[in-house]
């Protein structure tokens, strides 16, 4: 066994072997995989191994498409059969909302060149004559859908990796992972130790235990999961072809051919946890006792859909473990608190995502960044707060029981909440706040007339649409109070603070006390890894305000540049809360609470001061994400309730009140403002998002060389603001929300990143990226998967000159 390697992969399931294979494919041949038992032990060997290409996330769809298309070439490359069956998949919609979801996915497939389209009932019956299609509103066809052999795929990845120089050691459990002072790791095993630069935890069911060896926790929890295979069905045995699989997700089961019978599996409401205190180390290829009664409701729905299944006996039952994250997405990426420790765990659709996941891991490790924005998979989307055991169990239970439920735009699930609240939570609740979850925190989305109201969910306008409009109207006509405590806040203090910030961010830091600037943070490939407002509060003190959900993600960038001697970096996100008070009467409303002059000549746009407001010490910034006259007011968490009460009382004098984040979303889109993880991500170049002017190329900053390289190129696409035709929007009763394809002359030219109704301008609006289209052009936005006429605007419809913002 090797004693040194570029990377050590721990875990010999399909994901670990895919990572190993893709590392070698990208040129790293000095790599090792360690497996405690045999390859495929744990969850891999008993997986149903279905494969499908489409996902609600466009980037995950891309990676699933890559995975499906790789399997055949992997067979050719390695000589190892992957057991690929691709008779196609039928996707059924029993409800209007499922129809909306499938039509939107079909529109995305058209944009990205994937094969997924609607067919008639007659066509579906020819493809699968055993299915009863009664009650089905819409049928989609994916010709490349099917399944693979779990063992074959895993061993094909392993063979391909070995051919390129990788070493695989079976029956080699890892007993320790110890980081050395130089940042390398020693991986300890009974067969000897390996020194490596990178440790990759692909431990699957043992991901928690492997992580614990490095002193970290990850929010994962295994469950039981069952499917069964029927005896031979004569009608299937008589066929000269393989039947397509059936995705009837409204029925909450999955169904496909297996041998000459059927395989039926379910995600039942009465789910069952396993190994809550840790996965047994002697577990390998075991299964649990059959418990078909637990999934019988789902099975009966499957048998109603394929009546012949009810006549067949059960040949075998598979009841095995799988391990989940709180949102059922993989937990992937370098652990921000460690150096060169990569986590990849909690994978559910492993055989649909294995190649894409392996490629992303290999890209990140070998180049420092993935080609796609995969924050939906990034371990950094969860803070350390997510390791709360009750939270993880509640979320996993909810995800398992609703595995096939539709994830609606703006949907907020209540399981495991509240987890983290701020002092004004109860007061906001009394005022009718409907809450969402942001990086573990409860935050107000909108305010209902009746406290205790909850969101309704769907693709069309929901119960919050009207009240959000009233909040926007209040703020635009008078003033509004928005809780912005979710923003990430950092303090950089000391003699080297300015130099450090200039070395991290692309813009030049403000030179005068009381000045602020907007600045991009550049990614490894030259894209927009983040954006921030930086304020100089003193000669040696700066505040940085950025996206709260990205705090752990951005830690990776901040940690790259060493702090100068005597300079400190401190997160204030938990210690400091804040409100944005905005609107034409916001100055009048606030002036009565402070002795500081808020007049324009004394407190201009993009300026800051320390002031006392309502008896509370605040850092006040003259900025507003609403695009209106306003101030951000940041105070100590213990003073938040006092400040809120003072603002509410002062607001009565001008007819102002609380405004939620959905209204803020509407107003920032009216101004064409981008938002991190929507319009801003490492995928997009500065000139594509309109931030090139904030990259000061006459100074050094993090990843400047990458920025220079991309800025020398023409933009691949451009961020634009679109106005959707009112007649089309009214007919569908739906606005764009994000992800909808943009078409021009029948061809895909882009996709929506954010959408909302602009209440104060009376327009349904969307931000998105396009190529081959320009301001003034007519296009079509595929809202609900159907074309809605739209026009690209020349300028934002609200206050395009910024006069109100600077008033």
UniProtKB/TrEMBL annotation:
Residues 733-799 form the Aminomethyltransferase C-terminal domain. SUPFAM superfamilies: Aminomethyltransferase beta-barrel domain, FAD-linked reductases, C-terminal domain, FAD/NAD(P)-binding domain, Folate-binding domain. Keywords: Oxidoreductase. GO terms for molecular function: oxidoreductase activity. It comes from the Bacteria. Residues 425-699 form the GCVT N-terminal domain. PROSITE patterns: PROKAR_LIPOPROTEIN (PS51257). Residues 367-421 form the FAD dependent oxidoreductase central domain. InterPro entries: FAD-dep_OxRdtase, FAD/NAD-bd_sf, FAO_M, GcvT/YgfZ/DmdA, GcvT/YgfZ_C, GcvT_C, GCVT_N, TrmE/GcvT-like. Pfam families: DAO (PF01266), FAO_M (PF16350), GCV_T (PF01571), GCV_T_C (PF08669). Gene3D superfamilies: Aminomethyltransferase beta-barrel domains (3.30.70.1400), D-Amino Acid Oxidase, subunit A, domain 2 (3.30.9.10), FAD/NAD(P)-binding domain (3.50.50.60), Probable tRNA modification gtpase trme, domain 1 (3.30.1360.120). Belongs to the GcvT family. This is Dimethylglycine dehydrogenase. It comes from Roseovarius lutimaris.
């Amino acid at each position: 066994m090797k004693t040194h390697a570029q990377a050590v992969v721990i875990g010999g399931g399909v994901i670990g072997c895919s990572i190993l294979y893709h590392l070698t494919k990208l040129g790293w041949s000095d790599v090792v995989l360690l497996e405690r038992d045999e390859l495929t032990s744990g969850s891999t060997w008993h997986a149903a191994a279905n494969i499908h290409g489409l996902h609600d996330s466009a980037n995950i769809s891309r990676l699933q498409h890559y995975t499906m298309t790789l399997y055949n070439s992997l067979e050719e490359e390695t000589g190892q059969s992957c057991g690929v069956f691709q008779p196609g998949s039928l996707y059924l919609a029993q409800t209007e909302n499922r129809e909306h979801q499938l039509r939107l996915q079909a529109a995305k497939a058209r944009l990205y060149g994937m094969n997924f389209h609607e067919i008639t009932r007659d066509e579906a019956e020819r493809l699968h004559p055993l299915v009863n299609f009664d009650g089905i509103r819409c049928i989609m066809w994916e010709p490349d859908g099917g399944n693979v052999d779990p063992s074959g795929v895993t061993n094909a990845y392993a063979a391909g990796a070995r051919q390129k120089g990788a070493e695989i050691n079976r029956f080699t459990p890892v007993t320790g992972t110890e980081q050395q002072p130089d940042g390398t790791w020693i991986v300890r095993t009974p067969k000897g130790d390996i020194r490596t630069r990178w440790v990759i935890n692909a431990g699957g069911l043992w991901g928690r235990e492997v992580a614990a060896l490095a002193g970290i926790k990850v929010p994962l929890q295994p469950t039981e999961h069952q499917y069964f295979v029927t005896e031979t069905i004569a009608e299937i045995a008589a066929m000269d072809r393989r039947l397509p699989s059936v995705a009837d997700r409204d029925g909450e089961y999955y169904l496909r051919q297996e041998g000459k019978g059927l395989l039926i599996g379910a995600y039942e409401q009465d789910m069952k946890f396993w190994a809550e205190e840790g996965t047994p180390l002697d577990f390998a290829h075991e299964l649990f006792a059959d418990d078909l009664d637990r999934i019988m409701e789902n099975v009966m729905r499957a048998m109603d859909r394929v009546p012949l299944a009810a006549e067949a006996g059960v040949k075998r039952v598979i009841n095995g473990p799988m391990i989940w994250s709180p949102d059922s997405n993989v937990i992937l990426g370098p652990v921000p608190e460690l150096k060169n420790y990569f986590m990849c765990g909690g994978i559910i659709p492993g055989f649909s995502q294995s190649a894409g996941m392996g490629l992303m891991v290999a890209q990140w490790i070998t180049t420092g960044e993935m080609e796609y924005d995969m924050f939906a998979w990034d371990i950094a989307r969860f803070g350390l707060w997510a390791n709360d055991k009750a939270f993880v169990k509640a979320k996993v239970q909810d995800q398992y029981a609703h595995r096939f439920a539709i994830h609606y735009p703006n949907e907020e699930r209540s399981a495991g909440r509240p987890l983290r609240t701020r002092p004004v939570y109860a007061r906001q609740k009394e005022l009718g706040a409907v809450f969402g979850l942001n990086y573990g925190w409860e935050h107000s989305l909108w305010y209902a007339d009746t406290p205790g109201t909850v969101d309704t969910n769907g693709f069309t306008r929901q119960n919050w649409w009207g009240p959000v409009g009233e909040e926007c109207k209040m703020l635009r006509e008078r003033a509004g109070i928005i809780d912005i405590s979710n923003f990430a806040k950092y303090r950089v203090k000391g003699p080297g603070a300015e130099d450090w910030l200039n070395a991290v961010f692309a813009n030049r830091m403000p030179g005068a006390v009381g000045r602020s600037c907007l600045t991009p943070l550049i990614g490894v490939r030259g894209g927009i890894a983040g954006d921030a407002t930086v304020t100089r509060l003193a000669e040696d003190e700066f505040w940085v305000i950025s996206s709260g959900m990205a705090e752990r993600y951005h830690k990776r960038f901040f940690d790259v540049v060493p702090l100068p001697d005597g300079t400190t970096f401190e997160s204030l996100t938990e210690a400091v809360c804040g409100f944005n008070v905005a609107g034409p009467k916001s100055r009048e409303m606030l002036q009565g609470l402070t002795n500081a002059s808020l007049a324009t000549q004394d407190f201009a746009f993009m300026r800051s001061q320390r002031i006392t407001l309502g008896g509370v010490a605040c850092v006040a910034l003259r900025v507003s994400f609403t695009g209106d006259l306003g101030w951000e007011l940041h105070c100590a968490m213990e003073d938040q309730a006092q400040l809120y009460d003072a603002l509410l009382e002062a607001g009565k004098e001008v007819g102002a009140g609380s405004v939620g984040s959905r209204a803020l979303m509407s107003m920032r889109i009216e101004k064409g403002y981008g938002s991190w993880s929507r319009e801003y991500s490492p995928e997009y170049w500065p000139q594509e998002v309109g931030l090139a002017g904030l990259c000061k190329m006459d100074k050094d900053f993090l990843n400047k060389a990458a920025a220079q390289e991309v800025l020398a190129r023409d933009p691949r696409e451009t961020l634009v603001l679109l106005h959707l035709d009112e007649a089309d929007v009214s007919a569908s009763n739906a606005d764009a929300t994000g992800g909808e394809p943009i078409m021009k002359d029948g061809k895909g030219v882009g996709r929506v990143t954010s959408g909302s109704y602009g209440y104060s301008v009376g327009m349904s609006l969307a931000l998105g990226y396009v190529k081959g289209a320009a301001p003034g052009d007519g296009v079509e936005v595929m809202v609900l998967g159907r074309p809605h006429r739209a026009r690209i605007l020349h300028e934002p419809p609200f206050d395009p000159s910024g006069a109100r913002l600077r008033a």
